[in-house]
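Work Package 3 (structural annotation) set out to generate three-dimensional models for the target panel prioritized at the project kickoff. During this period the team completed the workflow that converts sequence records into C-alpha cells, so that structures can be stored uniformly alongside our sequence database. As a representative example, we reproduce one entry of 466 residues exactly as it appears in the project archive.
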Amino acid sequence: MKQLTRPGKALPKRVFIDATYTLSSSKSSGIERVVRNLSRELRSLGQEGEIPDPILVVNQDGKFYAVDDEFTSSYQHLRESHQNVLSNTSGAYRSAAQAVCTVTRLRVLRKWLLPQAGHLGIFKLPHSLRAAKIRKGLASRNLPIDLGKEDLIILPDAYWINRLRSSVWPAAEIARQAGACVATVLYDLIPLTHPEFVGIKRRDAFLDYLTKAALNSDLLLAISDTVRDQVREFLPTLAPQSSEFCNDIRSFQLGAELEDVRGETRSHVTELFSETEKRPYLTVSTFDPRKNHTYLLNAFDRLWGQGEDVRLCLVGRIGSRCDDVVARVRSHPELGKRLYLLDDLSDCELQFCYRNARGVVFPSLVEGFGLPIVEALWFGKKTFVSDTPIHREVGRNDCTYFGLSNPAALVEAIQDWEQALIACPSPELPVRVPTTWEQSSRELCDHCLEAFTQRYRGPRKSAIAA
C-alpha cells in the first residue's frame, strides 16, 4: 500500500464520516452528491493506506454508531421509497389525490399530495419516523463508538434540515470533550445573507445550525473562498467576545467532473437542437426566486423586441415560490417558438442540451458554488454569468459576466456574441477541466489532518488558512 508522506502532521488512528441524512435520501444532486462522492474518495484513500480506512457512521441520541449490514439494507429500502414515494401508495389514494388537485388547481396542494420523484410531500413525516426507527434499531444492536484523542470525525451532511438540526451537535460536543477532532463542511450562508429567499423561520433555523457548528467544530471547511470569507466575517457578529467558536476556517474545492451518461434522448429534445444556426441558449437551474428567471426573461423579451432571432431553453425542476414566473413562461407568446421549457430531463438528455446549446446563461442572484458554470465550461460553451463574487471565483476568466441591475447588460453581451458568430461561426472556446472528486477529497483530507495535528498536539489556536 502507498503511504502518503505528511511531514509534521499527526495521523489519527480512526477516521469517521457522518452521513445520517444522505443515507436516507435517494437524491444524487446537491448535498447528497457531495457527501456520497467525498465518502467514496476518502474511503479510496483509506484502501490505499494513505489514511485509516474511514468508517461511515450515523448519529443517534447524542452518540455516533457505525453502520452495519442490517442498517444498510433497511436504509436501502428507505431510499427506494424516497425515490418515488407515490409508487408505495394505493391506486385509490393516487386517484383521490389527483381528483382533488384537478378540482382545486392549486400547485402547492399537488406538490404535497402528489410529490414528484425524489420528493416526499405529505409523506415527509412518516419517512422521518421510519428513518428514526431504523437508527434506533442500529443503536439497540450496537454499542456507540467510544471516541478519543486519536479520532477524526468529518461532518459533511445537511445538518440544518429540520429533522437533523439538533441531533448531530450533542454527539459532536461529546466527541470533542473526549478529545476527538471534529471537522464540519459548510456549503453557503444564503439563509443568512439573503433571508428573503427562505423566510424568517428557515433563517432562524439556519442561524441555530451555524452557531452549533461553530461551537462544536475544530475546523470549518467552506466549499469556496467566497463562503469561507463570509463565515469569517459573520461569526464575530454572533458572539464578538466568544472564544468558544471555531476560528480555524478554511476552504476546499468541490469535485465537478462529469461522467458521460449514455441513454436515449427523446425526439422533442433532439429536434429542439437540430438546426445549428437556431440552437437555443440554455439555462439550467431549478425554478426558484434566487435563480433570477425574471431577469432572464426580461432580457430575452428585449432581444426579441429588438428583432434578434434567438432562442432560449429553460431546463430545471419547478420549485416553490415561483408560480408567477412559471405562469409567465407558460403563457408567453414565444413558448414553443423561441422559448422552451423542459422540466423532466434525464441526465443523458441534460448532457445532450449542454453539448448542443448555442451558449449557456446563468443569471443567479446568489450561490454557494454554481455547478452549471463548471458544467458549461466542461462542454466548451460560451458561458454568460451574473457578476457575483462566487461566480467570479468559479468562472475565473473563462466566462462573460453581466451586471444584475439592468437586463440590458445581458442583452448587450448576447448581441456581441451573435455578431462574433457571424464573423466566426465556429470559434474555439476554452474547455475547463474540472476538479476531480479525488483532488477535492485530498484537499479536504489535508486540511482535516492539519486541524487534527493542532488538536492532538496542543490547545486550539487561531488558524486562518487558505
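DSSP finds 17 helices and 13 strands in the chain.
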